[in-house]
Prior knowledge:
Number of helices: 9
Largest sheet: 7 strands, mixed
Strand content: 15-25%
Order of helices and strands: HEEEEEEHEHHEEEHHHHEEHE
Bound molecules: (3R)-3-hydroxy-3-methyl-5-(phosphonooxy)pentanoic acid
Distance between the termini: 38 Å
Number of strands: 13
Shape: globular
Low-confidence stretches: none
Radius of gyration: 20 Å
Amino acid sequence: LISKQFVVDAMIPKKSLPAVPMASESAPVNIALVKYWGKRNEELHLPITDSLSVALSLMTTTSVRQAPCKDEIILNGQRLPESSAFFLRTARFLDLFRPNSSFFFTVETKNDVPTAAGLASSASGFAALIKAINTLFDWRLSPEKLSILARMGSGSASRSIASGFVLWRKGVLEDGEDSYAECIGNPWDELRFGVLLVTSEAKNIGSGEAMRRTVKTSPVYSLWPEVVERDLKAVYQAIGSKDFVLFGEAVERNALFMHATMQTAWPPICYWKPETILAMNSVWSSRSQGLPVYFTMDAGPNVKVFYPVSKEKEVLAFFPSLWQIPLLW
Ligand code: PMV
């Protein structure tokens, strides 16, 4: 089994001390249009399928510097206890990059989104962190390498290295050298995005465990690679021809199938709350009244929608609480 440390050591220049006293970098939140759901390698976060996302203009900004005697992590101005899940997960990631065992980091990280909004993601977090580490040590790594290293923190972080439409190719190599994300296609200026906020409660099962259980136990998971292939083809074509209906249909059915795979796992996993279903129904009823609005959902209860700018006024009238978030091209 290939370890993360082995891959990292092969990828970064010989470990040295910081080249600058402090480095600060940002990375965007990304929303998957065709989802990443299931790993072929748990250790290296290598996916079973390709996935495709679009970047939001919500950023995580992270600064790193050397700390005197132990790691320190400050999230939105608050020093985190060393026993918190966020601290432990970040420190494990930092372990991969320490020049020696007595080197510690101070990490200060700020999210544009209030963490409570349920959109603040590990994806933008690990992408910003690896970019800041790269700058601190002056490694000058390529975007492909940064994407691979961000993936070591969380799979979807590989896509937060770029903006616009981003394709993460699953790759076939055992060490994941060919499993990284890059920008594809041109900006689609008429595309609009918003969130129907359902709840800001923390989810009770993480995406890692949910994926594992789904791959292992859902009888419909075997269809997922075919579904992804079909939906990727459609979204690709839709992006190329700016066909909003083709785009929306592929995005919505992809999210629904992902949720079908977890709802048919055992024990079953359902991230939906009653309000999630109400929001889905209001999207469907807006469509039956002629409004082109389509939704997607991730490993959480919030419903995220796409619509064309030409219908913005009508969409806002229909969904007065819609939280509009610009896309990042
Ligand atoms: O990167 P992870 O392990 O947090 O998984 C992300 C999974 C989804 O958000 C549900 C789908 C995706 O492609 O982002």
